[in-house]
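Most newcomers find our protein records easier to grasp once they have seen one. Read left to right, the backbone structure tokens trace the chain's path through space. Nothing more is needed to start thinking about how sequence determines fold. An example says more than a description, so a record of this kind follows:
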Amino acid sequence: KRLLGFPDSRGRTAPERRFYFQLARELSMTVSELLDRMTASELTEWAALYSLENNEREQASNRARAKAKMR
């Protein structure tokens, strides 16, 4: 069984499972509750938001590194 986006014995991951745990923690519910209460469409939108926010953090980090190198 693959859990939390970590590789299984063949090196495969289940990143969506890790996302479910992160979102459930943020919404103060269990993964089971999350999956029972939320539609697939809403989960997809949450995943898109997390991805967008992650990209924004990476871009900000890259800008900060580039700025630090200029000093």
